[in-house]
Request: fold
Amino acid sequence: MELSGKVSVVTGGVQGIGRAIALRLAELGSDVAVMDLKEEGSAELLSEMRALRRKPFFARADVSLSSDVDAAAEEIIGLFGRVDVLVNNAGITRDALLMRMDEKSWDSVISVNLKGTFNCTRAFLRGMIKRRSGRIINVSSVVGIMGNAGQSNYAASKAGVIGFTKSVAKEVASRGITVNAIAPGFIDTEMTRVIPEEARKSFLLSIPAGRAGAAEDVANVVAFLASDGASYITGQTIHVDGGMLM
Ligand SMILES: NC(=O)c1ccc[n+]([C@@H]2O[C@H](COP(=O)([O-])OP(=O)(O)OC[C@H]3O[C@@H](n4cnc5c(N)ncnc54)[C@H](O)[C@@H]3O)[C@@H](O)[C@H]2O)c1
Reply:
């Protein structure tokens, strides 16, 4: 797999799965711009990418705000000239049973996970269409397919990402652009470290592979979807879950 000469954007790339994706793409030769709300940790990430002899960039942006995303996209395109690969990875949870879920928890999860994916895709798609080439990879979740008590907002946002992926894939397939989703299962990151021990144990029991996934397990699949070898795969949702959902 080779990504030299490519320019990639990874949203939510400062920590967790996004960080592993940014580093994997850089290892394979891509220059990488990371877009994140959180700046802490970005300097270390950028220096790791520089050590790989890549040109990295950090743009502070809240993906749920189209004004932030458009400004960051302008800066990134100004600096690199184009974007070949967009990874919509930024995501949040605000868990509660539906009867206890407030409007703010619903709105914030839909705004970041689903509208953020729309905002970023719209900002970078025009250039891809003009060049008749591009890769868009959206990070969904097994929860978007199977549902999960206490995560109706998150499940709705991630199911929305899958529908969005298929629709955009159909719109741009003839322009040499692929749009795919990844549905990770239970991956060991900050997001899952806050899950109570009992719930963690029961998640682990539901994974045939018998272990939580690592961020790198997801990053490897993103790298493949970004590569030339994946040019005939579009509109798909690839499960990276140790067999949790079959
Ligand atoms: N960890 C898992 O088990 C798991 C499973 C399935 C799907 N996912 C998905 O994978 C993606 C990454 O999750 P993670 O586990 O690495 O989470 P994480 O919380 O460790 O990292 C999320 C990153 O997104 C950034 N972010 C949050 N809101 C943002 C916003 N409004 N604008 C820009 N950046 C923002 C955060 O600052 C952070 O760097 C998410 O979309 C998540 O839903 C995770």
User: Anything to note?
Assistant: The chain has one domain: 7-239. The two ends are 27 Å apart (CA to CA). The chain has a mean pLDDT of 97. Residues 103-131 form the longest helix (29 residues).
